[in-house]
Structures are given as C-alpha cells and as structure tokens.
Amino acid sequence: MKLMTSTARGSAAVLTGALLIGSLAACGGGSSQASAKADTGSITLAIDSDSASFGYDPLRVSAAQRQFFEGLYDSLMTLQPDGSTGPGLAKEFSYNADNTVLTLTLKDDVTFTDGSKLDAALVKANLDRRSDPALSAYSAVAKGGAQEITSVDVVSPTQVSLAFAKPQPGFEKNLASTTGMIVGKNGVTDTASLSATPDGSGPYTLDPSTVKGNKYVMVKNDKSADASKYAYKKVVFSVVQDPQARANALVSGQADVAMLTSNTVDFAKSKGVGVTQIGGTVNTMISFDKIGKTAPAFAQEKVRQAIQYAINRQALVDALHKGDVPAWNALPKDSAGFTKDLETEFAYNPDKAKSLLAEAGYPNGFEFTIIASAQTQTDLQAVQKDLAAVGITMNVKMAASTDEAFAAVATTPLGYAPLNWDNPVGVMYGVVLNGFTNVQKATDDQLSAATGELAAAKDDAAAKAAATKLNTRLMESGWMIPLYEALTNQGYNTKKVAPVKFAGTNAYPLLSSYTPAS
C-alpha cells in the first residue's frame, strides 16, 4: 500500500502487488559481490511490486510509486535529498495573502516525449483531470477533498494559478510527488494511450526491451536538461515479489539494489551486501468493507475492534518478522500522532475480543474470506489462528489471477498490505477515505474531521494534536488493524553502488540518489 514498502504503500498498485501471486525469480544462492565488476552504465533495482500495473499514467498511483515514475515524468516541485521541497517544472511559486491561491512560474524549455512543450495550458489540462475518480494522485484535490482545487487558471504562457476551496499553506509539497507530475499533450488528450506508452519529460524514456509486469527498462532522455543529475545511463526495475528471491537476486549479482524485508537482512549482510534502513511503514490489515456489503459482521465497529484485540502482534513479529516492531498504532513510531497509550488500550486480549463479538451479536463468531499472495500468506495464516481462537473463521484464499486481486477491495471485507505514512493527509484522502480501499463509500465523521485538521495545521502542536486524533480513531474504528512496523531496507552491491540514502523520512529513495561506488 511501502500504499507499500514495506505507497500510500499509498496506492492501488501497491496493494494489488501485495495481493498478487508471488513470482519466484532470481533464486540463486552464492554471492558474486566480491567479484562484481563496477558498471556505471546501468543499474538494476529489484522491487517488490509492479509499479505500472495500471499503465504509465502517474496520476493513477500515489506516492509509493514516485520513485518509479520519477524516471519518466517531472513534477511541478521536487523532493530534495533532505526531504524538503524544491523547484521542479515550476521554478518559482507564490501565494496570495490568505493562502487560497497558489501561482506557479514554469520553466520554458521543457519537451515531452510526444514533442509537446510545457506551458500553463498544459498544466491546466493536467490538473483539470482531477474530477476523474480513477486518478488516485488527485483524490485530495478533487471536489470535496480537503485540499480541493476549485479552479486552475492560465495567467500567462509560463504562469498558472491554482485556487483552493479553503486556505492551503504549504500546498507546494504535494506537487513534489505524483500529484505534481505532468503528462504531455498527447497523453492528456488521449489518456487511454497512457496504458501502453508514457508521455513525460523525465530524465529517462521507456526502452522497447521493457516486459510489462516483469522488468521496466529506462534509458537516458537526451531531451531532458535534468538527465545529467542521474548517474546511470540505464535503469532497470525488476519486479520480484518474493522477498527471499529479491535477496537472492542481490547477492547473486542479478540486481544491484533490492528492497529487502527485515527477515532477509541478516542473510544479505552475511553475503557482503550493504544495507541502509529507515522506519515508517506499518504493515496493516485494512477494512475494505465498513457497511457489511460483503460480510455483514464488518458493519459492526465492535467486530472490527474485536479483531484488534484478538491478534497477538508480539508473537507474530517474534515468529516471522525478526527486527521489526509490533504495532498497536496505525501511524508509525516516528510520526507526530504516535501514542504509547494505544499499546495498552489495544493490547492482546482474546477474552475482550470474545466479549465484543457477543455484544455485536456474534457470540459464536462468523466467517469471511481474505485474498492472499505468496508474499502475505504466512502472515495471514498466523492471524487466522488468532482469529479462530476467538471464534472468527478467516478463510485465506490465494489470488488466482490479477483480476481477482484487484477485485478484492470490492469483494472481500478485509485486506493486508504495507502503508507508508510519509504524507498522512495524502494517504487518508488518496487511499483511506476517498481512495480505492473504500469502494463501499463508508464515512466516519471523526476520521474526516481529524484529517481536515491535520491538513489545515499551521504549526507542530496543531499537527501533533490532529495526527493523534487521527491515529486513535483509526484504531478505535477498526478501519486500520496494524500488525507491525517494518523497517524499509535498501540492500545494495557495495562494489557497484554507493551507500543508499533516503530523502528525509521518505521510505523510497530518490532515483537520482543512486550513484556508483567510488
């Protein structure tokens, strides 16, 4: 979901990647790290899900896919190495006195792969797509969203203004991810074409050797002025869903960098691989159905709370996720809204779970089905035993196809995936409240209010108060049923790649941050 590192992961593509059947690849054993010949011409990244499962429209995904789409598209603003926001396609910006209008001054020398040029009309054409509910990146700025853009106006060929329904100080940071990515004229005019062909101005273009769903090959874009900021002439994103297979690909030299799960870190290190780590990703069960459409019991908040109490999170981590941290908070430990009070309030208590089930009208429990993949099956089987102990029968069904995995948000009451909370407001509006995990259109006034308060917070104290309310209500409502906080681990070939650095607290390194070992 990192909406997955371990996007927002905050996006439909990531959740589906977690549900899809794992593809075992790169399962060699011995290390070739010591003898690997440095190759500054190309780098291969082993990733855990198909970032382009929806095609090449960057607005159909969320921040979890930023690193992949960063190669193909430029954003209006950019994420900087320290996590701050810097200029991108917009070289300058300014707000009016009450922060209800943001004016962007654009670069005038940007060319897209279709040959079109960047101008204010093109930016307007992109942002005017915000009414399309399929565009996850725009969910927060669409009509009714907490950061609603009411109009986009062309001021001049190089200036465009965004008017908001209410003050939005600091909105520019949203334009440093997929929300700010701009598609060329052909792609905006014929959006269906983006399912097969990207239309960006990024530092790379898609090479014909790409095999969709398996490997994505990007080569330097000679039309991009920023291409020189990226060290490698070619970048290969290799989709390897199985965690051990990713680690094997790294130590055998088939990949230069890999997303590692915590239980494969020691193995990778023992083979001479370098590893850098950051927290912030909560592996969580997500209640898709809060109205009882797919399983009547899930309409009861007490039932969802019962599941919170039924799960022995510490035992799960001890058995399956060495190095990670049990989670009784929906938000990660380093977030403003984290509170240790929830560790006590939602501590493992099967007796309380049984009592809540009885109060909700299910003294003998109930039965439902959850869709799994090779990546999630073991965790779900552990949870299955905990739920069975309080009378709940959770059938774990392996996804038989991509279609079944995609459909799970509408056909099953509960899912499981990692969520990265680097941008909590974006995750809430893009995934939880208005996004793909709420296809039943359930509402929760407290969650909506807390998210709105967080979006409008003008200082750290206000942000902390709002985030704490949000975190607490996510747990109380059972919209989120977290299991553990995973460290995001970037393993890298020390003979070829310099130590990987994260951009502030963002779980996905900048694509430009990968550089050759000195």
TrEMBL record:
<dbReference type="GO" id="GO:0015833">
    <property type="term" value="P:peptide transport"/>
</dbReference>
<dbReference type="InterPro" id="IPR039424">
    <property type="entry name" value="SBP_5"/>
</dbReference>
<keyword id="KW-0732">Signal</keyword>
<feature type="signal peptide">
    <location>
        <begin position="1"/>
        <end position="26"/>
    </location>
</feature>
<dbReference type="Pfam" id="PF00496">
    <property type="entry name" value="SBP_bac_5"/>
</dbReference>
<protein>
    <submittedName>
        <fullName>Peptide/nickel transport system substrate-binding protein</fullName>
    </submittedName>
</protein>
<dbReference type="InterPro" id="IPR000914">
    <property type="entry name" value="SBP_5_dom"/>
</dbReference>
<dbReference type="GO" id="GO:1904680">
    <property type="term" value="F:peptide transmembrane transporter activity"/>
</dbReference>
<feature type="domain" description="Solute-binding protein family 5">
    <location>
        <begin position="87"/>
        <end position="402"/>
    </location>
</feature>
